[in-house]
Amino acid sequence: MHSPVVVLNDSLNRESGSRVHHANIQASKAVADIIRTTLGPRSMLKMLLDASGGIVVTNDGNAILRELDLAHPAAKSMIELSRTQDEEVGDGTTSVIVLAGEMLHVAEAFIDKRFHPTVICRAYSKALEDAIAVLDKIAMPIDVNDRVTMMELVKSCIGTKFTSQFGDLVADLALDATTTIGVDLGQGLREVDIKKYIKVEKVPGGQLEDSKVLKGVMFNKDVVAPGKMRRKIINPRIILLDCPLEYKKGENQTNAELVREEDWAVLLKMEEEYIESICMQILKFKPDLVITEKGLSDLACHYFSKAGVSAIRRLRKTDNNRIAKACGATIVNRPDELQESDVGTGAGLFEVKKIGDEFFAFVDDCKDPKACTVLLRGASKDLLNEVERNLQDALSVARNILKNPKLLPGGGATELTVSATLKQKSQSIEGIEKWPYEAAAIAFEAIPRTLAQNCGVNVIRTMTALQGKIWDAYNVKAQTFKTAIEAASMLLRIDDIVSGIKKKQAPGSTPSKPTIEQEGEADNEQMIPE
Length: 530
Hints:
Blueprint: H1 11-35, E1 46-49, E2 55-58, H2 61-67, H3 73-88, H4 93-112, H5 117-138, E3 140-141, H6 147-157, H7 169-181, E4 183-186, E5 189-191, H8 194-197, E6 198-204, E7 212-213, E8 217-219, E9 232-234, E10 238-241, H9 261-283, E11 289-292, H10 298-306, E12 310-312, H11 317-327, E13 331-332, E14 349-355, E15 358-364, E16 372-378, H12 381-403, E17 406-409, H13 413-426, H14 434-443, H15 446-455, H16 459-467, E18 471-473, H17 474-492, E19 498-499, E20 515-516, H18 519-523
Parallel strand pairs: 6-16, 10-11, 10-13, 11-12
Antiparallel strand pairs: 1-2, 3-17, 4-5, 7-16, 8-15, 9-14, 14-15, 17-18, 19-20
Helix pairs in contact: 1-3, 1-4, 2-3, 3-4, 3-17, 4-14, 4-17, 5-13, 5-14, 5-17, 6-7, 6-12, 7-12, 9-10, 13-14
């Protein structure tokens, strides 16, 4: 067995590197400490002042770190971790920071003992492989068609959030929305794109219990001519366009020189005939509703209202895509290329309603919608914003389970199992990697320890009780472990921080070269905003 002291023989070259390592570790620990108290079901809330001067009250790790403006590069890199976790699986944003901070914290002792960072990173990556193997071993398959089990699972994953006081509401919304838009790709694979095809529409007023998932989509628009066009159509035929229904304007400044007075009338007539021809091409398919992403001229509006067709203009591209998915229409670029198959007939109802001071158009009661809108009602904007953040987490949890239907024990039980298995395995590892490997095993205990501290309860007793009650999605745990350990390894490999930002110079002075931070600068970097 090797002694940990004889790891390095080039300690002189390592002096400046270890200073930077310490600075990076301190910065990472500072970020972890900021959000450590927001982990778990009885966690604390943070009140943040955002860039525009507004106030945000939340316990969502990613939402908190998004608002922080930290100077140290290592701290910024830690914040990036939370963002990655949020985009990949939508949950575990606090856990990943706490775990990465702990991995770096236990590595500090080895840096002091002159262990080479590469040795520590090798041990960490071996620990990660073994941890994922443990997850595969203890994972439990789940039937995604069993609504009761799915509800329990989503509820246990978002039980730490503010909306847990409203019972099943958010879990219900999340399950309804994700099962609506799920698409089977065959071979047991399922595509659930919650970013593209689920829109959360927040409308202040009413009660939170009035929130619902529409069997279709809604958007903040009214028909072009409210008095002349219908605001309610049953079983509408819908045509979606992304071209303007007005005379084409020149790309840049266009001059037309008219010699005779009659030429002006000819020019206007040509414009009118062009608009009439494109309107007739559309009306040939007998639509009830025409929606375009671009402009719609008064003349086109006249032809449509005369034919009893409702029209909506300047709709967002994303909204248009959702309508296409909901009612089975195809977005057409040119009216002359329209076919009967492009007309959407899947919607049961088109209706424009006034909610509060604004008009909202609903394309609802669709036969087989592959896009939907979640309508959130609530007393205030702050409440709606927090409910939306919680709903996004619930949607992510539901999506993860639908894509990979496996469960792991929650409440820190999985981390304790991984920790115990790795400690046992560390006995069989030879060489200097044994100690960092064992330290990584101990670092996994940070999650259950933090959970217990935040609840203010007896650690051992609570862990035993939680083990049988709470479940987590496999995807979230695996992603948390991978992101945290890989990020810790990356930060340990950094031995210099080079600043390429030019400092403001006095007039007439010579420009300075990029500087390498010395010990004093790196250690005194401001890590937490005043």
